Amino acid sequence: MKQQLPGIIESVLFAAGDAVDMQRLAEIAQADLDSVKEAVAFLISDYAANKRGFSLIEIDGAYQICTRPEYYPYVQAIAGARRQQGLSEAALEVLSIIAYNQPVTKNTVEHVRGVNSDWAVTKLAERGLVEEKGRLDAPGKPILYVTTQEFLRCFGLISLNDLPDFDADVVLEQQDPAQMQIDI
């Protein structure tokens, strides 16, 4: 069974399409966590050493098979180009406020930005970058927002611990006051 474990993990991740956490992989493969970790490490190094067409990436303690970036143009030719849309400055502001302060209410986001953020929060949720994660125990029970695994995947982060350090004083010193409020 231990020799088959890399193949089992590879097939499960391939079929899943999304990230699968280590504990779930162990349950499915009926193996202990250490063996699964060893098999995942083997797959990661094997894919890299052999320049396979895909790689195994970690996203917040879960793993996913993805196309290697250098082969994306070839996959694009057969699958069709994904429409790549950037985020507006307003959406990026809202996303960064949520990422660094999560869980956070929309009211808090709007307080930090100084403008209404309904549209940006809605767009970020539609794109799967943020999601609702319960409600604050306060009058009106406002929704709490957090970032998603898709956020980590899009920004190439393994976990939220990989976010760059944030020093608000430095950012505020570098901002032009006229640019502080950006309407969407």
Could you characterize what this model shows?
It is a single chain. The chain folds into two domains: 5-79, Orthogonal Bundle (Arc Repressor Mutant, subunit A), CATH 1.10.10; 89-179, Winged helix-like DNA-binding domain superfamily/Winged helix DNA-binding domain (Arc Repressor Mutant, subunit A, Orthogonal Bundle), CATH 1.10.10. A three-stranded antiparallel sheet has the order 1-3-2. A three-stranded antiparallel sheet has the order 4-6-5. A hairpin with a 7-residue loop joins β5 and β6 (143-147). It has 184 residues and is α+β, with helices and mostly antiparallel strands. It has helices at 5-16, 22-29, 33-49, 72-79, 89-101, 106-113, 118-126, 149-154, 168-174, and strands at 20-21, 54-59, 62-67, 104-105, 130-135, 143-147. The N and C termini lie far apart (56 Å). α2 packs across α3 (33-49).
Helix content: 40-55%
Number of domains: 2
Low-confidence segments: 170-184
Structural class: alpha+beta
Number of helices: 9
Largest beta sheet, briefly? Answer: 3 strands, antiparallel
Q: Could you give the order of the helices and strands?
A: HEHHEEHHEHHEEHH
Categorize the overall geometry: globular
Task: State the distance separating the first and last CA atoms.
Answer: 56 Å
How much of the polypeptide forms β-strand, as a percent range? 5-15%
CATH class value of the largest domain: Mainly Alpha
Count of distinct strands: 6
- Give the CATH superfamily of the largest domain: Winged helix-like DNA-binding domain superfamily/Winged helix DNA-binding domain
CATH-derived architecture of the largest domain:
Orthogonal Bundle
**Main sheet: which strands, in order across?**
1-3-2
User: What integer value in Å does the Rg equal?
Assistant: 20 Å
- The whole-number mean of residue pLDDT values reads 84
The CATH topology annotation of the largest domain reads as Arc Repressor Mutant, subunit A
